[in-house]
Every structure is written in structure tokens, then in C-alpha cells.
Specification:
With 241 residues, the chain is mostly helical. The protein has ten helices and no strands. About 5% of the residues have low confidence.
Length: 241
């Protein structure tokens, strides 16, 4: 418990605003690597996933490649690419690894979102005379958006946790404090940086959860309010005396 309190004190210490790399700057670097890598992966994986889901072709190949990409050791791949590309391209090498890690989840979310759509909805669109592009943009993409956001959510959480290894090749981020803590055996610093990474992951997860909730298209309008039934006066028969 004392270690946790000390780690929280380390996070909010004024000393985190001093030095060669401040904590706010490390957080910004961490988020820049995360969002940049996920954005590049999305540009690659989303159109490919929509194509697979729309045509139904290539799904097996995509599953095999996605599984292979997820099995790659991130740290070893970063070091390998840095050695191959050179120190001057270490940023590009690290981003390439993060993109490779993000593609499988986004790709699966893109084509699974389209595959999950009821075929009768698509058949109805064809019966109305829609072209293949109109079916894709007006039916499949909106209805598959929720699962696509789920894929983006999974990819972002995986990348935000993996970006810590960027510090291993001198690229900063929150992993800088973890590496520094390992070198100096400062477990409070390691735990403090880990807590910040977990906090970022929780915030991003909450944002994507809200996006997924509101991404579901509304197919029905608001229900009309039921009017209260007015009391009906029942005539009482008059008896003649």
C-alpha cells in the first residue's frame, strides 16, 4: 500500500515537470505514437476489411495473416527493424511495428461488421435497385460501424500498452521512466509510469465505448406517447315511478 501511495506521489510531484523529459511531454509522445500508428493501420485495414466483408473473398487469408501478426514479438521486431533500417530511421521502424500490431484487430472489426449484417437487409437494397457501391456506403458501412469501432478500440488498447517499448530504442514516451527506473532500481518510478499507462488505457477505452454505443444506427423513430384514456360516462337508465 505504501508503494502505491509513493507511486501516486511520484506522479503528482512537481519534479515531474522538470528534467530532460517531463511527464506531460512523455504522455504526449505516448499518445502521438498510439494515435499515429492506429491511424496508419486504419487507412490500410479498413478498406481491405470492407472489401473482404462485401465480396466474401480472402477472409481465410486475412485470418491467417492477422494471427501471424499478433504472434510477432513486438520488442524483438522493433530491435530488428532498427538494426536493419539504421538508427536514423528508428522512429519509422517503431511505428511500423505498432502499425503491424494494430492492423489485425481493425481488419477483423471491419469485415466482421459487414458479415454480421442480416442478408435480408442487403437483399432489400438490391431489390430497390441499389448498386454495389450504394449497398456498401449506405447499408454495410453504417450498420457495421459498431464492430469496426470495437476493432479500433482493441487495436488502440494494444498499441497504447506496447508503445512503452519505444523507450528501449531511445524514443521517449512513458516507457522512458520505466527504463530509467529499471536502470536505477527505482520501483516507485516504474509503478508510477505503469499507473499512467493504465490510466490512459482506461480513458481511451471509455471513449471508444461511448463511440460504439452511439454508433448503432437508429432504425426506428421515437415512440409516440400514449394518450391517457379519458373516462367514458356510462348512462344510467332512469326508472319510471
Amino acid at each position: 500500500m505504501n508503494l502505491l501511495i509513493d507511486a501516486l506521489a511520484w506522479i503528482f510531484s512537481p519534479a515531474r515537470l522538470e528534467g530532460s523529459l517531463t511527464l506531460p511531454m512523455a504522455i504526449l509522445q505516448h499518445l502521438a505514437f498510439t494515435f499515429g500508428s492506429v491511424a496508419i493501420a486504419a487507412v490500410i485495414a479498413i478498406p481491405l476489411g470492407w472489401l473482404i466483408g462485401h465480396t466474401g473473398r480472402g477472409r481465410e487469408v486475412a485470418v491467417i495473416l492477422s494471427g501471424a501478426a499478433r504472434a510477432l514479438p513486438a520488442l524483438g521486431l522493433v530491435v530488428l527493424l532498427v538494426m536493419v533500417a539504421g538508427v536514423n530511421l528508428k522512429t519509422e521502424a517503431a511505428v511500423t511495428v505498432f502499425v503491424i500490431l494494430a492492423i489485425p484487430s481493425i481488419l477483423a472489426g471491419a469485415y466482421a461488421g459487414i458479415e454480421a449484417i442480416d442478408r435480408t437487409v442487403i437483399d432489400a437494397g438490391r431489390a430497390m435497385g441499389m448498386t454495389q457501391w450504394q449497398i456498401l456506403f449506405r447499408i454495410e458501412m453504417p450498420l457495421g460501424l459498431s464492430l469496426l469501432i470495437g476493432g479500433l478500440r482493441s487495436a488502440t488498447l494494444q498499441v497504447v500498452a506496447t508503445v512503452t517499448i519505444a523507450a528501449y530504442v531511445g524514443l521517449g514516451g512513458l516507457g522512458f521512466f520505466m527504463m530509467q527506473g529499471l536502470n536505477t532500481r527505482n520501483f516507485i518510478e516504474i509503478l508510477g509510469a505503469s499507473i499512467v499507462v493504465v490510466a490512459l488505457a482506461l480513458v481511451l477505452d471509455g471513449i471508444f465505448a461511448l463511440l460504439a454505443r452511439y454508433a448503432v444506427p437508429r432504425t426506428t423513430g421515437p415512440r409516440p406517447r400514449s394518450r391517457r384514456a379519458e373516462p367514458v360516462a356510462i348512462p344510467v337508465p332512469q326508472t319510471s315511478h
